[in-house]
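User: Fold this one for me? It's histidine kinase.
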Amino acid sequence: MYLGAAPGVGKTYAMLGEGRRRLERGTDVVVGFVETHGRLHTAEMTEGLEIVSRRELRYREAVFTEMDVDAVLARRPAVALVDELAHTNVPGSRNEKRWQDVEELLGAGIDVVSTVNIQHLESVNDVVAKITGVAQRETVPDSVVRAADQVELVDMAPEALRRRMAHGNVYAAEKVDAALSNYFRVGNLTALRELALLWTADKVDEALQTYRSEHEIEGTWETRERVVVALTGGPEGETLVRRAARIAARSTGGELLAVHVTRSDGLTGADPAALADQRRLVESLGGTYHQILGEDVPEALLTFARAENATQLVLGASRRSWLATLFSGPGIGATTIRDSGDIDVHIVTHSETGRGTRIPRLRGTLSSRRRFQGFVLAVALPPLLTLTLSSHRATLNLVSDVLVFLLVVVVVALVGGFLPALVAAVGGSLLLNYYFTPPLHTFAVNEGNNVLALGVFVAVALLVSSVVDLASRRTRQAARSAAESETLATLAGSVLRGEHALQALLDRVRESFSLTSATLLERRPAPRAGGGVMAQGPAADWSVVAGAGTDVCTRPEEADTAVPFGDDVVLALRGRPLHADEQRLVGAFAAQAAVVLERQRLSAAAAAAVPLAEANKMRTALLAAVGHDLRTPLAAAKAAVTSLLSRDVHWSEEDREELLETADESLDKLAALVDNLLDLSRLQAGALDVLTRPTALLEVVARALDDVGDEGRHVVIDLPDDLPEVLADPGLLERVVANLLANAVRHSPAAAPPTLTGSRLRGTVQLRVIDRGPGIPPEARERVFAPFQRLGDTDNTTGVGLGLALARGLTEVMGGTLTPEETPGGGLTMVVSLNAVPAPDQAPAPEPGRRERRAEPAARTEAEP
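Assistant: Here's what I get for histidine kinase.
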């Protein structure tokens, strides 16, 4: 099967070439059906090949020819060449579709070489219709093409295909301009080419998987290097990223992915600033950054690597000391290597290896002031408590005294932490022994129960103090982690800018929590039944602002987890329910998404102020650029009138006529220049009155040619008689066409005058002003629409460079577009697109229960230009 990216790329030529090669090798080859479309080179390729005669069929008083399946079966060759697999046969044929004819040949043991274009595949038919605006009525099931033993893509760059068409190698000369203007535009051809490449790649992958399955191959085939580097936010991160980037760069097409694993409780201990720097480094090296959740770091890393089909994993050597390793067992690196399977694991040494993880000391969680206050209380409270309890010795026993001292130790622990509490516990035990344990005022203890009581007091005091201190440290650590999360969210907001910010954020949410989809929904007011807008509430409609993944949600009720932000924004997640800790983290993402959405809207509001700034800029440029151009025609007119008024010179009748014509011509130029300046000023200020109505293009073009003057007589006009009316302001459209024609005439060589053509494309009408001049480089095409821009043209007699700027502005205010394109063969084409006036639908509706049939069969599957 020869799969063509577009009509005209040469798939029929390739099929015939394959037939000739097989014939030369002694294979019995016949041509079952071939369509040359009048192309000379294609017809030459059929020479020397046996061609089976076609079958003639009469349909609606016309005679058509189709492949004679019976004749091919009777001839029974080894190989049959059958062109245009998606072709629909003429009613009365053996089968409805040509691909059904091919299946008959295959069933009879005849090998078939065939052709088809990507736009005729059933799976992409609707996509092609949206791209090109041409509905393909003839399609073939993908399964028929996929069943081919070999599929070869026949491809060609869009520019090369357009050149082939311009040279007359695809269509007849009279159809070339229309084809280039419609179906064969660069954008259409590029999209068709991408569809063909993707479909073929999918077919290749399917063949590879089939081969692996048939041969029971279970290992990973490293068709592309994907290197994953694990980041902890530690100081070794930059070293790991650069090493991983070098590993990825050693292979063609290698990819770099950086991943950071965070725990779902948020207590990661990572430095957010370091992670942000490392992320920027990864992206500057062409890699991507990912953040995932996982309690088991090695398992999370390997799960991510396998999901991304990674081939190599880069880890840093452990920062733990040998003593920590001795007591805590194997680390992340050793566990990852043990469970990695087919993934290569690189352990990279760095300057922090073996230096130990910087674990904060116990007292490090409290400020110096709090610790000082704790020591003061540890020194002051036990003596004060001793004086107080001594005065009540007769009413209190040792147990009560111990409990009161224990309360003091807990208070000291809450204020100053563990060390002050330790001081309070030791001092309290000594005071209890000396003042409240018989014999009094000595450190001797007579009863064993009292010794036990003092020992238990010290133990309980220390244990309670450690628990209180640990809780205090955890509380402060959690608060610090929350602050770090807010910092990361703010940082993400500064990194995720641009039109794809929301999409990138939602991709991160979906990836981090292993979800199927993440969707940002916004509540919109629902319309009242009788008109107006209903207040926002439960009945309001939800709209999808942005989504990531497959099967996005359209309402919060469809989500497994819906995280609201405010009253009207919801982050809807689908894939699995999230537990409370995860929902808390997702809330930060929802808040960030709302911020990004608000920022985009603020940017849109700021963009609305751009026209005002442009107006200021235009006025400044006006003063700087048009002084000479306004003065030149004014000076010429003034000189002519002054000469006529002079009494010192006697002017002949011819001289007087010449001076009057000079004055008239100069004043006309001045009036036209002032009109252009005023119109451009009104456009910039948004004050131009536009009255659109159905407008006939032939009338507008005729008046525009009059405006161009004598040079307009050389313009070639090629407007179809059935071209529909357009929605436009006739006066403004006349100015647009006149400016474009004047510009084209000025740059066209005398031997190749400009051409004005028209065509209909979906719901628009396109006017194309085509010249064969020097053209404009692609990078400079947009600059020609800037006011006072001549692209280096120093001829001030041709105007101040307002023509194209005004033409685009007038076109856009009428709801159209003006875009430049390269003329095949050299030159510039200006394309004006305007909305067509819809024609009334007079076609009767089909009867219920009856299937509509085509009015006539297609003689070929090539797209009509």
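One thing worth pointing out: Residues 448-495 form the longest helix (48 residues).
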